[in-house]
Design a protein that fits this description.
Pfam family, one: DUF3579
Number of domains: 1
Protein name: PhnO
Strand order of the largest sheet: 2-3-1-4
Distance between the termini: 18 Å
Helix content: 10-25%
Order of helices and strands: EHEEHHE
Shape: globular
CATH class: Alpha Beta
CATH architecture: 2-Layer Sandwich
Number of helices: 3
InterPro entries: DUF3579
Radius of gyration: 15 Å
Low-confidence stretches: none
Largest sheet: 4 strands, antiparallel
């Protein structure tokens, strides 16, 4: 049996280090939208739709908006990775290093 290696992820929470809710309320969608061009789209031309990157995606944890950043983005586009992590640090957002656990099938 082979061991599956899970990539590390960084969870940027929409809560500042001093406990305040980060504004604007759509900050996570904006950050992920900026980096959506790094995703893998199967559709091209006039029927193409914006898709969030699999490496930077918005999620909701309870009532807190978050952005999950896959560390593999650093290998693909280091400047994009730095941009997102620096955004979190510059805005004093809580940043946690972890990994997602896939749902059981």
């Amino acid at each position: 049996m082979t061991e599956q290696v899970t990539a590390r992820e960084y969870f940027i929470q929409g809560i500042t280090r001093d406990g305040k809710k980060f504004r604007p309320s759509d900050w996570a969608e904006r950050i992920c939208g900026v980096l959506s061009c790094f995703g893998r789209s199967k559709v091209a031309g006039p029927y193409a739709h914006m898709q969030y990157s699999p490496y930077v995606r918005p999620i909701q944890v309870g009532d807190v908006k978050c952005v999950v950043v896959d560390e593999r983005l650093r290998e693909i586009e280091p400047m994009a990775f730095d941009f997102v992590i620096n955004f979190a640090n510059d805005n004093n957002l809580q940043l946690t290093e972890a990994c997602s656990i896939p749902d059981a099938v």
